[in-house]
Design goal:
The protein is of the alpha+beta class. The protein has ten helices and 14 strands. The strands form three sheets. It has a six-stranded antiparallel sheet, with no helix packed on it. Strands 1, 2, 3, 4 and 5 form a five-stranded antiparallel sheet that branches. Strands 11-10-13 form a three-stranded antiparallel sheet, with no helix packed on it. Helix 7 runs antiparallel to helix 8 and helix 8 packs antiparallel against helix 10.
């Protein structure tokens, strides 16, 4: 890692070697939210030298990248030039996602504003006189301004971010339409015009936020399948040293060749070979089969399997991202 800047060094540390001398890393890009984002990111990354694959996962907001050289290409810089912030994703880590709370709050404010403005608009449409119409237009403007400022920022912030970098996305025309409708309505109100469209601008924001919130909730359910597998995996195990001393260590510290002791009720943390003991193994997490399978000396046991009775002494063969449970989680995510 000598000679690399901090961002490149962190990217190398977070990457894993794969077949053919390539390296693979996952980047977290929270601003991904549409097909246009996917197309621009994949096109830009694939144009970099030594990149063999670049795939965007919209549900998890991750970008999986493979490259040939030991020194990573300028991935973070390329994404920054497109208007996306990114950082390396370590295997097994879980970033907290606050987008759902923001969307729900924005949706609630937009719904409240849309209902009240629509009530005032119905009165205007019903034939209110000029003075009453002007008062209702002013009240609608007072409600629409803070509503659009708070709820519309979901779209305005995204549009401004990409416009600063000379790019566009689906939020740009949305922002233009909403702000144009609001600006025209404000002008009509100031000049005592007959027509104002505050209801249209706020209601449009409300329906767009409804769609985006439902889309986010659906993708969150897809992400929960991967996180559920990770939570079921063992987080620590008892390691037996060469001197026979037992130590309870995190799974991240287990290395191939270590001897582990797994008691009844525990899950096997690594792919291993049984060297002593016998037990009925629950493989339902891996295969869906509820009937236990008997494992004895010489049998292969996989990570994620549960020990139902007895005690096993196992020899670790594959650890970390090479275990069965980790590969299943990766396939589900893909």
């Amino acid at each position: 890692l000598r000679g690399l800047d901090r961002a490149a060094a962190e990217l190398v540390l977070a990457s894993v070697p794969i077949a053919g001398g390539e390296r693979e890393a996952e980047l977290v890009v929270p601003e991904i939210h549409c097909a246009g984002c996917i197309a621009r990111i994949e096109r830009a990354l694939k144009n970099l030298p030594d990149i063999t694959e670049a795939r965007v996962n919209l549900s998890t907001k991750r970008v999986r990248v493979r490259w040939r050289t030991s020194t990573p290409p300028p991935l973070l810089e390329t994404l920054a030039a497109l208007g996306f912030s990114a950082h390396a994703q370590e295997k097994g880590s879980d970033d907290r996602d606050d987008a759902r709370s923001e969307l729900l709050r924005a949706l609630a404010v937009a719904g409240f504003g849309a209902m009240n403005i629509m009530l005032l608009s119905v009165s205007v449409w019903s034939g209110a006189d000029a003075s009453t119409r002007q008062i209702f237009h002013c009240l609608s403007a007072l409600i629409a301004l803070p509503t659009l400022a708070y709820s519309g920022r979901v779209f305005f912030r995204s549009a401004w971010r990409v416009l600063r970098h000379g790019q566009t996305n689906m939020d740009v025309p949305i922002s233009i339409g909403v702000l144009t409708a609001f600006g025209l309505s404000l002008y009509e109100t100031i000049t005592h015009g007959q027509h104002a469209y505050f209801d249209a601008a706020v209601t449009l924001i409300f329906f767009l936020l409804t769609g985006r919130t439902l889309d986010h909730l659906m993708r969150e359910r897809a992400r929960s399948a991967v996180l559920g597998l990770a939570r079921l995996a063992a987080r620590s195990a008892t390691v037996i040293g060469e001197d026979g001393v037992r130590a309870y260590v995190p799974v991240e510290h287990i290395q191939p060749g270590m001897v582990l002791s797994i008691a009844a009720g525990e899950r096997i943390p690594v792919n291993a070979r049984v060297i002593a003991g016998a037990s009925s193994i629950d493989l339902s997490l891996l295969t869906g089969e509820s009937a236990p399978v008997r494992k004895e000396r010489g049998s292969l046991v996989l990570s994620g399997a549960g020990v139902e009775d007895g005690r096993l002494r196992i020899y670790a063969e594959h650890v970390g991202w090479g275990t069965a449970a980790a590969r299943i989680a990766e396939y589900v995510e893909q």
